[in-house]
Design brief:
Elements (H helix, E strand, L loop, with lengths): L1 H28 L5 H27 L4 H16 L4 H14 L22
Amino acid sequence: MRDFARDLQRHLIGVLGLALIGGAIYYLVFPPTSEFHSMFEAACRRMGIFCVLLWLAYPELSRLPSWLALTIPFVTAVIVFRPRYALVLVPLILLILFLRPRRPGSPLGTTGRKKTEGKSR
């Protein structure tokens, strides 16, 4: 049942992405007439591409830490409204993700060497 819910979420993200890209294509055929429609067209284009990329990466994203799942919507909202902040926020999140201390038992915290138990050279 859990796999079904995960697959359903992934498909809903894909459908939302296609709907947003459809909205962007609509505004390519019929150019926006007001400032609101121009902003809506840009949001459809950006979020449509983002949702399609999220749909493609969904299986790998399910393995990310939970704190990052809370950070991604915030960073996405900031990037949609202030795209220049992406130059600061995206590298900052990546630095936090890769440079934070690891727990000794986590796979990313190991050095790749196996410990030999009870054996000495």
